[in-house]
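User: I've been trying to design a sequence by hand for this structure and keep getting stuck. Would you show me what you'd pick, starting by listing the structure so we're on the same page?

Assistant: Good idea, let's start from the same input. This is the structure you sent:
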């Protein structure tokens, strides 16, 4: 399939008029293929022809196959959940911590990564101060003590879009026998991720941003080693090894399925399956290059118009998020929204996050209102 044919496959699968929707880091528009899946399912549901039980099981399993192929991990390592905060909370409560254990967290990271650790006496929290929006290896090494047992961090910072050096952090963690927990919400569907190459003990991601799913759908991926160390904090039909109705005994699965306690978000699972099947067909290299080209185009435009940034952007740490300072942010947001567009305005910054369905037309149109 040619580059142009793949590009058309994306752009033709979205409703028109999304040129100025620059808010994919907050939520993504739904593709037309996904819309049809929902409509067809609602018709079945209205006629009582849907099957929420085994139907849910089957779709969960085929989704895991697609995700495993996309990030190169085993299906046994994947659990389907609801959101990042819930995933981290289950992880933290399922591990055994000693009184003097410490975890490294990063200032300005997303609260769903940091707040779950505040509910526990152990491990105690040590903070890393990012440099130019990045948790550098030097900053991490300076914070290391023999008590540090884990590092929890976002792959991509949700405000600035700066990409943390996860492969280098992974090597450091392996050297010091430290667990690495990563929120990949702003990375999955944007950056190439190969879990056979980068060792991460726990990866979690909500799928309602770059993966075109409704809220309430997330995944957790455990390393095989960590999978055997984390104890489920609950139990339900889905978490049983055979998914059979029983009152006793509790016989949880040997896989990450043991963390799926009850019925899952079937619509989210169905759409996620469509997304990752789609992603696997076109390849992450095309997706990544498309998003990076759009981001670089936006960065060039903003630089030409002399806007300032909260960090110094470089190719080494770029994702599909750019934040900048506008002298009249509220007026800019009004103009953007009046033309059917959207972005995020928070903490005095405007955050732009283009999508794979957009082209250079987006940059040209945006230039008229900057």
């Amino acid at each position: 399939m040619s580059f142009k044919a793949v590009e058309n496959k994306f752009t033709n699968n979205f409703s028109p008029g999304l040129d100025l929707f620059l808010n994919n880091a907050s939520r993504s528009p739904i593709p037309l293929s996904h819309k049809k899946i929902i409509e067809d399912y609602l018709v079945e549901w209205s006629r009582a022809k849907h099957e929420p039980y085994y139907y849910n099981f089957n779709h969960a399993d085929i989704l895991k196959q697609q995700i495993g192929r996309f990030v190169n991990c085993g299906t046994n390592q994947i659990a389907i959940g609801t959101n990042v905060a819930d995933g981290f909370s289950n992880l933290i409560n399922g591990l055994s911590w000693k009184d003097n254990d410490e975890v490294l967290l990063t200032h300005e990271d997303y609260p769903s990564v940091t707040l779950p650790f505040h509910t526990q006496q152990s491990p105690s929290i040590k903070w890393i101060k990012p440099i130019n929006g990045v948790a550098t290896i030097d900053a991490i090494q300076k914070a290391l003590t023999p008590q540090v047992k884990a590092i929890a961090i976002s792959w991509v910072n949700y405000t600035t879009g700066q990409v943390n050096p996860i492969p280098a952090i992974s090597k450091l963690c392996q050297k010091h026998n430290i667990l690495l927990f990563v929120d990949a919400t702003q990375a999955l569907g944007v950056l190439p991720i190969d879990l056979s190459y980068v060792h991460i003990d726990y990866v979690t991601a909500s799928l309602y941003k770059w993966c075109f799913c409704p809220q309430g759908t997330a995944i957790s991926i455990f390393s095989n080693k960590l999978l055997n160390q984390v104890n489920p904090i609950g139990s339900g039909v889905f978490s049983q090894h055979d998914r059979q109705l029983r009152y006793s005994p509790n016989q949880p699965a040997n896989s990450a399925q043991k963390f799926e306690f009850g019925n899952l978000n079937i619509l989210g699972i169905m759409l996620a399956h469509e997304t990752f099947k789609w992603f696997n067909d076109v390849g992450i290299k095309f997706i990544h290059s498309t998003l990076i080209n759009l981001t670089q185009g936006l960065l060039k435009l903003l630089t030409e118009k002399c806007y300032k940034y909260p960090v110094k952007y470089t190719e080494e740490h770029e994702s599909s998020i750019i934040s900048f300072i506008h002298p009249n942010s509220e007026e800019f947001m009004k103009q953007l929204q009046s033309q059917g567009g959207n972005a995020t305005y928070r903490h005095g910054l405007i955050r732009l996050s283009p999508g794979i369905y957009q082209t250079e037309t987006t940059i040209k149109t945006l230039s008229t209102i900057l």
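That's my pick for every position. To get oriented when you compare it with your attempt: The radius of gyration is 21 Å. The mean pLDDT is 94.
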